[in-house]
Specification:
Glucose Oxidase, domain 1; TIM Barrel; 590 residues; single chain; alpha/beta; binds magnesium ion; binds phosphoenolpyruvate
């Protein structure tokens, strides 16, 4: 038996056979015996053949829908036969007696070194193709595993997933009736997939560093999201304990009655609680949890899960319309696609997992062209979503929200595109209502210019998940620095206060939809900072209501004033927990 400790992000205890998923392009080097060389060369060739079959298949599918994109794959097919690639990797295996994965990675480094020196921008861009192809070869070198999607499809018994990282697009493809829980090497409390785990109600532990290497496929594993542990090869007693916990997983007493009552503080200040959702089907969970509306619909999950294509106006319209009708009279705030370049490219060619094959060397750039910035570079695609949204607006209460905004210019440009989309619809004979337009405040630049942005929008939504990582310079998916990701940092509290004041001065509503709101202790501090609108994962709403009802807003305001004077996170946390000490519910993981 072995215990691994990480960060529990979704409570509960489950057990099952481990399925291992490695997505990151980290490659191990190991020496092989002379007699294994032929075996290694055969693996390499099988990987080439398999990669060719996959590329031919993808090319054919893409050609049907987007003929102009199909040629992208010709370049990769040609490279696959290039003597500089697979034959060169075979030489490295023979000469250096190393594993095939390492040899393929070496070839990639040689290729990129040459391409980096080429001045021609077209040729330099080919590095991306090589990276993609090398990623595919390496993926096909993994014995017994074809693609992550196949792997997940093939599960025929209750399993737990152990992954180096679990991207939202991959999580969207998992059959969560078979996968009972998951653990990842990467991640922190607010890691996207953790958010998903909580809304799916599956136990999860993240930030385990090397669980995907320590656990072997097929081993029995317990995931204990409540105590932040993963138990490998558990004893019979441990398994029995896990089974007892699984039986205990029923809603807290009194939750039913609590759900139907609107939220307010003990001194009668109404608090609005909306739900954050990822899939249209989550509406039911949001309503069940007692959400007033949808404060954040992460529409990019439509693309990640393949429910709709980025260029399909009619399909998107039907989905948005269904959501508005389903949530009426509540308001649905749809955030326009918050994707990055790799994701949009892969979805364009119907290849949802390609984003996972980006080489480590290129990953740093993924935070750049994302959200509204990316939408503005692809106006034709952005217009499709905006038209679909405006048409749907006739069927309910809609707000449109832009992600990842860092300047007034971007906002103006986006508003101009909304006007253009409305004009285009009018030309088609479709009159559409005026829809409130807002921005996520999730980049420090937006927070610092909140007064300027407030003059040009109808509402703000503070996205603390990104705001914290950009303000504190901490990548929330990087476990090496995830302990520095701290919502209680004085800089974060001041920024939130600043944004709230800017919104108030301009008399526009402001809500907060980051994971901070799902933590009852942090929620009470946010109320103390003057916020009254929140959007959170549906499962967190009943507890939030319960906690708020026991506290007076004037006391929370006084607590926040004291806290704003404290210089360190430790002192802030201490003051907060001491003040809330009477309540036992406050820590979600206690
Ligand atoms: C945020 O950044 O706080 C947010 C809610 O957006 P996401 O988590 O989807 O980036
Ligand atoms: Mg965000």
């Amino acid at each position: 038996m072995q215990r691994l400790t990480g960060i529990g992000v979704s409570p509960g205890v489950v057990s099952g056979r481990a399925v291992i998923l490695i997505q990151r392009a980290q490659v191990l080097r190991y020496q092989i015996a002379q007699r294994r060389v032929d075996h290694e060369l055969r693996r390499l060739d099988e990987s080439r053949v398999r990669s060719r079959e996959q590329l031919v298949d993808i090319r054919a599918r893409v050609a049907k829908r987007l003929p102009e994109m199909a040629s992208l794959f010709d370049a990769q097919l040609l490279m696959l036969d290039d003597p500089m690639l697979v034959p060169r990797a075979a030489d490295i295996v023979r000469d250096q007696r190393v594993n095939a994965e390492w040899a393929v990675q070496q070839v990639f480094h040689e290729f990129s070194a040459v391409l980096d020196e080429v001045a021609d921008p077209y040729l330099r861009e080919r590095t991306g193709d090589v990276a993609d192809l090398v990623g595919r070869l390496r993926m096909n070198l993994r014995q017994g595993v074809s693609t992550p999607r196949d792997l997940l499809r093939e599960l025929d018994e209750a399993s737990v997933l152990i992954a180096d990282e679990l991207t939202p697009s991959l999580a969207a493809q998992v059959d969560w009736t078979k996968v009972r829980g998951f653990a990842t090497d990467a991640g922190s409390r607010t890691y996207h997939t953790a958010i998903l785990a909580r809304s799916l109600d599956v136990p999860a532990v993240v930030g385990l560093h090397d669980a995907s290497r320590q656990v072997q496929p097929g081993q029995i594993v317990i995931i204990d999201g409540s105590s932040s542990q993963v138990i490998v090869d558990p004893t019979v007693e441990e398994l029995a304990r896990a089974a007892r916990h699984a039986d205990d997983r029923r809603p807290a007493a009194g939750a039913d009655a609590e759900r139907r009552r609107p939220a307010s503080t003990a001194d009668g200040v109404p608090i609005r609680l909306d739900a954050n959702i990822e899939f249209p089907d989550d509406l039911a969970a949001a309503r069940y949890a007692g959400a007033e509306g949808i404060g954040l619909y992460r529409s990019e999950f439509l693309l990640a899960s393949g429910i709709a294509h980025v260029g399909e106006e009619e399909r998107q319209y039907e989905i948005y319309r269904g959501m508005l009708e389903g949530m009426a009279p509540g308001t649905v705030t749809v955030r326009t696609f918050d994707v990055d370049e790799d994701q949009i490219t892969s979805w364009l060619v119907e290849q949802p997992l390609a984003g996972g094959w980006v080489a480590d060397e290129q990953r740093g750039s993924r935070q750049g062209l994302r959200g509204l910035r990316l939408s503005l570079t692809r106006p034709e695609l952005f217009q499709v979503q905006v038209r679909a949204l405006l048409r749907a607006a006739r069927h309910g209460s809609l707000r449109i929200m832009f992600p990842f905004v860092s300047s007034v210019e971007q906002l103006r440009e986006a508003r101009r595109m909304i006007a253009e989309a409305a004009a285009e619809l009018a030309r088609r004979g479709e009159q559409v209502p005026t829809v409130p337009v807002g921005v996520m405040i999730e980049i420090p630049a937006a927070a610092y210019t909140a007064d300027l942005l407030a003059r040009e929008v109808d509402f703000f939504t503070i996205g603390t998940n990104d705001l914290i990582q950009y303000c504190l310079a901490v990548d929330r998916a990087d476990e090496r620095v995830s302990q520095l990701y701290e919502p209680l940092h004085p800089a974060i509290l001041r920024m939130i206060l600043m944004v709230r004041r800017a919104a108030e001065r301009q008399r526009i509503p402001v809500s907060l939809c980051g994971e901070m709101a799902s933590d009852p202790a942090l929620l009470t501090l946010l109320v103390g900072l003057g916020l009254t609108d929140f959007s959170m994962t549906p499962g967190a709403i009943p507890v939030a209501k319960q906690v708020l009802r026991e506290l007076r807003r004037d006391e929370l305001r006084a607590l926040a004033r004291r806290i704003l004077k404290l210089p360190t996170i430790d002192e802030i946390e201490h003051e907060l927990l001491a003040a809330l000490g009477k309540l036992t519910l406050l820590r979600s993981d206690s």
